[in-house]
Amino acid sequence: MDTLSPTTLLKALRQQAEQLGFQQMGVAPVVLDAAEAGLLDWLALGRHGEMEYMRRHGLKRSRPPLLVPGTASVISLSMDYLPGQALPMENLLQQGDKAAISRYALGRDYHKLIRQRLKKLCQWLEAQAPGIQTRLFTDSAPVLEKPLAVLAGLGWQGKHTNVISRQRGSWFFLAEIYTNLALPVNSTAEADHCGQCTRCMDACPTGAIVAPYELDARLCISYLTIEHFGPIPEPLRPAIGNRIYGCDDCQLVCPWNRFAQTSEEADFQPRHGLDRAGLLELWQWDEATFLKRTEGSPIRRIGHERWQRNLAVALGNAPHDPAIIRALQQRLPAASELVAEHIEWALRQQTGS
């Protein structure tokens, strides 16, 4: 088999990626000096909260060859995930007795689907010439995926710190392939097109976007409901509203998402009616039901206890309802210390005491 030139190989690789369901692909260099400086500043300010894994691997996150020796270039890819069959989040946020769940978590765990597709892409690439080595990542290792996506030409990091594409908005997952193959890298990163817009900052319920392009995870609802293990700080609970797993508000208001495309992937469509479930319905799930209904879902990672913690906050924020009060009181005697504290807070909110 004739060896393809790097440019021809890159073109063929892009075609393979599109056939596997990726909407964007680009190649980034392995030098991330500016991103590394930003990461170190963010960590020094403690804005990572309890996410110690952001610090644990040292500079491997910002220096690809330290993580995978021999890495010469990084292939960055994106896959749209906005579920076209889901009830719009804007509708849910206006119904305080409904559960608002981040769009990415309504279906099956994206890691498995993307990993399978990446594996096929890696196998194709390795078959093109002897000695090509690859390693794939799907939010599964210390990788600065957003700066890499920007350098690869997939978009720019908006003021909310998510990557935005002029053609596709921001409702997409990112994935990477580290390779020892020196592919032609993207020559011009996408310019910043946020301009004077501050809609994401203005819309953030808890003020987590503390300055343009600066996110304090300790204030972010996605962090508080997913990554945070302990009690949710009481002053932040009212602002969480009915969001029980993640928060999409900054993406919902972004003007560039008028160009977002809905996903046709079956795995990204809602399961078990999670796009329209009532808070009381989900509150009734015991641990066995929770584990069964979240099998293969990213939601399972928070466990039943934190699921109940989040629901208790949302029930406290819901419109006054005697049925909510009864449900909270019934669960209180057997609740863990963490959940019980949130139930008691919710009862105070519901009863006005």
How are the SSEs placed, and which strands pair?
Blueprint: H1 6-19, E1 24-28, H2 33-44, H3 53-56, H4 64-67, E2 73-80, H5 89-93, E3 100-101, H6 110-126, E4 134-137, H7 145-151, E5 156-157, E6 163-164, E7 172-179, H8 199-203, E8 209-211, E9 214-215, H9 221-227, H10 237-240, E10 243-245, H11 249-252, H12 279-283, H13 287-293, H14 303-317, H15 322-331, H16 337-351
Parallel strand pairs: 3-10
Antiparallel strand pairs: 1-2, 2-7, 4-7, 5-6, 8-9
Could you explain the architecture of this structure?
Helix 14 packs parallel to helix 16 and helix 15 packs antiparallel against helix 16. The model has no long low-confidence stretch (mean pLDDT 96). The chain is of the alpha+beta class. The radius of gyration is 22 Å and the shape is elongated. Among the domains are: 156 residues, no CATH class; 76 residues, no CATH class.
